[in-house]
Amino acid sequence: MALARWQPLREVDPVWRNIEQLLEAPSLLRWPGRWDGGGDPPALDMYETAEQVVIQVFLPGVRPEDIAVALEQHTVIIEGEAQRNRHLSQEHRRRERRPGKFIRRVTAPAYADMDHAEARFENGVLTIMLPKQAQATPRTLPLQA
């Protein structure tokens, strides 16, 4: 039987990944007072293509002028406000979406080119496109004696 060197940080790494996933879960972000005005954090998807990282934020009923997108280092910050539906009476049969201010912070990968980011808003979906930077290719250096 071969002996293996114990690496305690290798055992802790999955625990940290689980904690990060729990903190990103929208249900944990709905604590009272967590968001200004009590609005729900918007749902989002983030995926990659060969050329870019794409973040889609689902904002039904939110007007483009009520949304602000900011970039800080490798963090995308989406702020906005969902307005109250004025056509509904005060006696709701069901109300699952709360109006109010919201904010979402998304960490982009280190290879995302934040300087050339683009955003568009169409049919209640905010799409943020972050092009990928050219990856550094490894090369060998000749040794001089």
What does the model show?
The structure is a single chain. Helices cover 12% and strands 32% of the residues. The protein has 145 residues and is mainly beta. The chain has a domain at 35-87 and 97-134: Immunoglobulin-like (Sandwich). A hairpin with a 2-residue loop joins strand 3 and strand 4. The relative contact order is 0.19.
Write the layout of secondary structure elements.
Blueprint: H1 8-24, E1 44-48, E2 52-58, E3 67-72, E4 75-82, E5 100-107, E6 118-122, E7 125-131
Antiparallel strand pairs: 1-2, 2-7, 3-4, 4-5, 6-7
Q: Which runs of at least 5 residues are low in confidence (pLDDT < 50)?
A: 28-37
Please identify the structural class as seen in this structure: mainly beta
| N-end to C-end Cα span | 45 Å
Taking all Cα atoms into account, the compactness measure Rg is: 21 Å
> If you consult CATH, what is the topology of the domain at 35-87 and 97-134?
Immunoglobulin-like
The CATH class name of the domain at 35-87 and 97-134 reads: Mainly Beta
N to C succession of SSEs:
HEEEEEEE
Mean of all residue-level pLDDT scores: 79
Short note summarizing the structure:
This protein is mostly beta strands. It has a domain at 35-87 and 97-134: Sandwich (Immunoglobulin-like). The protein has one helix and seven strands, in the order αβββββββ.
Task: Name some characteristics of this structure.
four-stranded antiparallel beta sheet; mainly beta; 145 residues; flat; Immunoglobulin-like
